[in-house]
Amino acid sequence: MTGIVVGVGAVILMVSTGRGAEKRILDRIGKLGTNLIVVNAAPARLMIGRQRTVATVTTLTAEDGRAIGEECPHVIAAAPAVGKSLVVRWESNNTTTAVTGMAAEGFRIRNIPFASGRPFDADEDRTRRRVAVIGPTVAKNIFGSSDPVGQQIRIGRVPFEVIGITRPRGIDANGMDQDDIVLVPLETAMRRLFNVPYIQTIYIQARGSQWMNQVEREVQALLRERQHLTEGRPDTFTIQNQTTLLKTERDTARAMTLLIGSVAGIALLVGGVGILAVMLISVRERTREIGLRRALGARPHDITVQFLVEAALLSGIGGILGVWAGIAATRVAAVFGFWETLISWPAAAIAFAFSITVGVIFGIYPALRASRLEPIQALKSE
Which of 127, 156, 315, 366 has the least C-beta neighbours within 10 A? Predict the structure, then answer.
C-alpha cells in the first residue's frame, strides 16, 4: 500500500508543480512585454538548455534600433538600450545596481508599470536630461521609508533627479530581480554615464503574436544588411522572442515533470506488486473459508469478484491516503516556497481511479487462483 500512497501522492505533486510552473512562466513572460522580441548584441550559445550571450559585441548602435522601428513593416516600436552595473548614492546610503539607458518607448514595449511618478519622455532622452526611474528594490535599499520622487541621487559621479518608481515585477525568466534597476534616458546613459557609441539590446514590439517569426526574419535581414554581413558569415547578434522563451521554459518544466512522473510510475508498480503479494497471502490463509463458501453454493465467479473487490478496496484506501499525502506535500511546497503550485483536482481524481485500477489488475491472479480451488480440498487444508 505504501507504493500506492507514494505513487498517487507523487502524481498529484507532479501535476500541481507542473501547473504552478506553467502559470509562473506565463506570468513572467507576460510581464516582459506584449509581443516582445529582444535583440542582443552578441551571438548566443546553449548553456544548460538556455540561450546565453557569451561575449561583448559593440556592433549594434542606437541607429540600428531606430531603423528597425522605421523600416520593418510588422514592427510597432523599437527601443535600444545599454546597461552597466554602477554604484547609486543618496546621502550616506549607496547600493550597486543595474543602470540601464533606454529609449522612452521601452516603457510601453516592456509593459513597465509605475507605483508613483512618471517615465521620462522622448524629449528628455533627446536633450540628455539627467532624470531617472528606479525600481522598488533600489528605492528600499537607499531611501528606506523616504519618498524618492523629486530626490537627487548620484549614479557613479553624475547627479540625477528621481522622477518615478516602478511597481514590483519580481524575478524574470533568467532569475534576475527586475526591481533592482535604475532606468535613465538612452542618450544620457551613452554620453554622460557610460561614454560608449554602441548599445547592447533592442526591445521590439511586433504588431501581433502571429507576426513574431516574420518580424524576426525582417530584423535579421535588416541588421545583416546594415552590418554588411555577407552570405555564410554568422550573425553577430541574437534574436529571441517570447514564443522561443516560452518553449524553452516549458521544455525545462516538462523534463522535471517526466522525472517525477517516472518516480510515480515506479512507485505505483511497486504498490501493485505489494497488493499482489498481500492478496496471495490472503488466499492461502483463507483457503478453508473459500472452500466453505464453495460448499454452500458460491460459484467461481463469486469468489473472483470477492477477491477483486478486496484488492480494489485495499488499493483504494492507498489511493485516498495518497491523495491526502499529495495535497499535503503540495501545500508544504507552496508554504515554504520550494515551488509555486496549483492543485489539480481532476488530476487527483484520475490518480485515485488509477490506483484502484492498479489494485484490480494486480488482484486478478490471486482472485483466479482462489476461484479455481476445489471445495473438498480447500476444506481439508490446514
Answer: 127
